[in-house]
Design goal:
Elements lengths: L10 H60 L6 H31 L8 E6 L1 H8 L8 E4 L7 E2 L4 E11 L5 E14 L2 E5 L6 E7 L1 E10 L9 E9 L6 E9 L1
Parallel strand pairs: 3-10
Antiparallel strand pairs: 1-8, 2-4, 4-8, 5-6, 5-7, 5-9, 9-10
C-alpha cells in the first residue's frame, strides 16, 4: 500500500483564503450593485413624482376655474382655483409614486424586480383536492389573496398569491400571469402601473404555486385611501381565474 503524501500545515488555509476572499468579494459586489439600483430607482422616482404631483395640482386649478366660469360665478374663480389645486394635488399624491415608479422601470427594464414564485403542492395533492380528471382538460385556479387589511404609510404590504395549475398529462404548463394595481382615493379608483412585472408568461410544473409580493405603500399616499391588487392566471385552453384584495392605508 502506498503512503499518502503528508499535508503541510497551513495548506488548507492558504487554499481557502483566496476562495473565501473571492466569495466575499462577489457578495459585496452583488450587494453594492443592488444598493446602486435601489438608489438610482429612488432618485428617479423622486424626480418623476414631483413632476406628476405638480401636473395634478395644475389640472385641479384649471378644473376649478373652468367650473366656476361655466356657472357664471366670476367672484368665486379665485377660491375655486385654490380648492381645485388642493384637490388635484391630493389626488395626484395618491397615485404619483406608482406612476413615477412605472415610468422609471419602463425606461430602465433592469430595475424591474423579479417575481418570487415557489412551488408548494405537487400534482397528486392538487388532483385530490380539486377532484381533477384529465378529461376536464387544462385547469387553473387562483385562491383568495392573502393580504393585510391595512398598511402603514411608507411601509410595505406583504401579499401572497396562490394558484393551482393542472393539465391532462401532469407535466409542465405555460402559464400567463396578469397583475394589476389600483389606488382608491376621494371616492375614485384609478389604475396605476404595477411595481414589478404586470404581465408574465412562465412554465410551471403541475401543482400549486405561491407568489410573494411586497407592495410598497408610498409615504404620502393619504391615510384612508386604499390600494387594490388584482391577480389573474390563465392557461392556453383554460378559463382565466382571478382574485383581488384591498388594503387600507393607515
Amino acid at each position: 500500500m502506498g503512503v499518502l503524501p503528508s499535508r503541510k500545515r497551513g495548506t488548507e488555509t492558504s487554499i481557502k483564503g483566496p476562495v473565501a476572499a473571492v466569495a466575499i468579494g462577489l457578495c459585496l459586489a452583488s450587494a453594492n450593485a443592488q444598493q446602486s439600483v435601489t438608489s438610482d430607482l429612488d432618485s428617479c422616482i423622486n424626480s418623476e413624482k414631483i413632476s406628476l404631483t405638480a401636473q395634478g395640482a395644475l389640472a385641479g386649478v384649471a378644473t376649478g376655474v373652468l367650473t366656476s366660469f361655466m356657472v357664471g360665478k366670476k367672484q368665486d374663480m379665485g377660491k375655486a382655483a385654490v380648492i381645485g389645486g388642493v384637490a388635484g394635488g391630493a389626488l395626484g399624491y395618491a397615485t404619483a409614486y406608482y406612476k413615477a415608479a412605472g415610468k422609471c422601470m419602463q425606461n430602465n427594464p433592469a430595475w424591474v424586480p423579479e417575481s418570487n414564485i415557489q412551488r408548494k403542492a405537487d400534482y397528486a395533492a392538487a388532483v385530490s383536492e380539486f377532484k381533477y380528471k384529465p378529461s376536464k382538460g387544462d385547469f387553473s385556479f387562483v385562491r383568495p389573496l392573502q393580504a393585510p387589511q391595512t398598511a402603514k404609510q411608507g411601509g410595505t404590504a406583504d401579499v401572497k398569491a396562490r394558484f393551482v395549475v393542472l393539465t391532462p398529462d401532469g407535466g409542465e404548463a405555460k402559464v400567463k400571469i396578469a397583475r394589476k394595481l389600483f389606488v382608491i382615493a376621494e371616492g375614485k379608483e384609478e389604475e396605476v402601473p404595477f411595481p414589478g412585472k404586470p404581465d408574465e408568461e412562465r412554465v410551471f410544473g403541475n401543482g400549486e404555486q405561491v407568489e410573494s409580493i411586497n407592495l410598497p405603500v408610498y409615504k404620502e399616499v393619504p391615510v384612508g385611501s386604499k390600494i387594490r391588487i388584482e391577480y389573474a392566471v390563465s392557461l392556453k385552453d383554460a378559463q382565466a381565474s382571478s382574485q383581488s384584495g384591498t388594503i387600507e392605508v393607515r
